[in-house]
Specification:
Radius of gyration: 23 Å
CATH class of the largest domain: Mainly Beta
InterPro entries: AL/BT2_dom
Strand content: 35-45%
GO molecular function: hydrolase activity
Largest sheet: 9 strands, antiparallel
Number of helices: 1
Pfam family, one: 3keto-disac_hyd
Keywords: Signal
Protein name: DUF1080 domain-containing protein
CATH architecture of the largest domain: Sandwich
Length: about 325
């Protein structure tokens, strides 16, 4: 093939490719199911939070990920969407039953609604709205640090279950066995949070930011970094290094949350640097991402202790 012919082919072919890409991009812009959704599931009169992200892969396929009440974000290999109707399914995690978990619904007036069927065959209705961007126009101005735990009693905290196993002893907020989670009475928007924690071997807990985003606490020394281990934002963000100490030692988190952007230091070492949390994690109290929320600690996965819990809210 001579150079003149090659140049001619390029002149014809490249604009054609560019045109097709533009058409495809335009088609996906109109594909209204794409984006992130904060979802409420009506489970027999009780509202349970969920989250969905849909995005395109290549020119034709829609994929995504979903968080359903508990567990980590689950990959969605294909989302079917046509005539403002959609459906997809994912394998179960902690749910009972042999089947997949399936979603079907419709898009209307920039909202979604439909039905989720659990692996045990039970179905529940859901509604969803677009998740907020949570972008901040300015850098935060930090206020005065506040001690969230007085070291003497549970003033400022409340158990989230029917019974409370949490106790305050010698400056330590302690859950001696699995039981209720615990949350602050106060709610927060953007903040810096310092806390220290200690767990016995093979125990597990977590710190929920605004009651929606879990930073994992679990016995992890010697393991490779993972979003399900110490220092990970559960299901979403893997820390750069594993900085866990031995079980039984006091350890520390320093967490900054501004909008969706999180920075985390584990035992004085920065392992997450200003990364976006895509959506709520399993175990979230609600899916109202644009509202302030409490700090809450998991107490249902084993013994855990906390101390020196200090928050610095943004003004």
């Amino acid at each position: 093939m001579n150079k003149i012919m090659l140049v001619s082919i390029r002149k014809i072919f490249l604009p054609f490719v560019a045109c097709m890409l533009a058409i495809t991009a335009f088609a996906f812009e109109g594909n209204t199911i794409e984006g992130r959704w904060d979802i409420n599931i009506d489970m027999n009169g009780k509202t349970a939070p969920a989250w969905l992200e849909v995005k395109h892969s290549g020119f034709k396929t829609l994929v995504g990920q979903v968080v359903v009440v508990v567990g980590s974000a689950r990959p969605v290999s294909k989302v079917n969407f046509a005539d403002n109707k959609f459906d997809f399914s994912v394998p179960p995690q902690w749910e009972q039953g042999a089947g997949d978990m399936s979603f079907s619904g419709t898009y209307e007036n920039d909202q979604i609604k439909g039905t989720v069927t659990y692996p045990d065959g039970k179905s529940y209705s859901f509604t969803g709205v677009r998740a907020p961007l949570l972008q901040r126009e300015k850098e935060p101005v930090w206020g005065t640090p506040v001690k969230l735990f007085n070291g003497k009693d549970l003033t400022g905290w409340h158990a989230l279950g029917e019974t409370n196993q949490w106790v305050a002893e010698n400056g330590v907020l302690r859950s001696p066995k699995s039981g209720s989670n615990i949350a602050t009475d106060a709610t927060f928007k953007d903040f810096k949070l310092h806390l220290e924690f200690r767990y016995p071997k093979e125990s597990n807990s977590g710190v929920y930011l605004r009651g929606r985003y879990e930073v994992q606490i679990t016995d992890s020394k010697g393991l490779q970094p993972d979003f399900g281990l110490l220092g990970g934002v559960y299901g979403f963000i893997t820390p750069s290094t594993m900085e866990a100490k031995d079980a039984g030692e006091w350890q520390s988190y320093d967490i900054t949350l501004v909008g969706r952007m999180v920075t985390l230091e584990v035992n004085g070492k920065k392992v997450i640097c200003n990364q976006a949390i895509p959506g709520i994690t399993g175990g979230a109290l609600d899916s109202k991402e644009d509202e302030p929320g409490p700090i809450y600690f998991q107490g249902d996965h084993g013994p855990i202790e906390f101390r020196n819990i200090v928050i610095t809210p943004a003004k």
